[in-house]
């Protein structure tokens, strides 16, 4: 997918300024940057949860021009290509784990319920939670809930999965369970775009790192280049120091 010349303001606050970036398919892009720099706004724009005032967005065979009116069909189409996973999971509290995973495929994709259920069990197995299928969200740990949210996203077969600080609410050992699942998906070439403050994980998993500061992209390159610039680029240096 690609963004070209994206601008987003909240009042007089220019939150995204002329963002142009390629977010490659079948790869893992990690977005990093200080709090308030615009990372969530950028990620949410990819799912059309935010509407930039201008800019072009291409994902798969879809082309969005943010300066024009966006139809509800375009919104639906973009959301089928991009699944969002939130920091606080956003599971349906009154549905079981299994019901959470099959809801989208049955209601939105109109999949046959038996087929959706079969696949849901496979996905729950993949994230290590098959035995929790009949549990409710409040019976799960944070790490388990986030893995259900990832399975629910996978059930929709999006081209890209977008994850906004997926482990920020988790204790380290629960975080590790979720990072393991994400590393497995990255190895399977699932396209991922992850906002995270975990630079150790970013270094391990990222094919590409995008560093955002004050609504602008300050760095866009390989993980190795990013960490190599630790000496040369004072802003990257300061950011990495502040995180470790
Ligand atoms: P990050 O995810 O990097 O912490 P955000 O994208 O959440 O940054 O926010 C970027 C800037 O936009 C911040 O100054 C924030 O206060 C502002 N902002 C985000 N969402 C809104 C909103 N709904 N209304 C007004 N300002 C917002
Ligand atoms: Mg954020």
Automatic annotation (TrEMBL):
One of its GO terms (molecular function) is ATP binding. It is a peripheral membrane protein. Residues 1-239 form the ABC transporter domain. It is found in: Cell membrane. The keyword Cell membrane applies. Signal peptide: none annotated. Transmembrane segments: none annotated. InterPro entries: AAA+_ATPase, ABC_ATPase_HisP-typ, ABC_transporter-like_ATP-bd, ABC_transporter-like_CS, MetN_ABC_transporter-like, P-loop_NTPase. Keywords: ATP-binding, Cell membrane, Membrane, Nucleotide-binding, Transport. The keyword Metal-binding does not apply. GO terms for cellular component: plasma membrane. This is Polar amino acid ABC transporter ATPase.
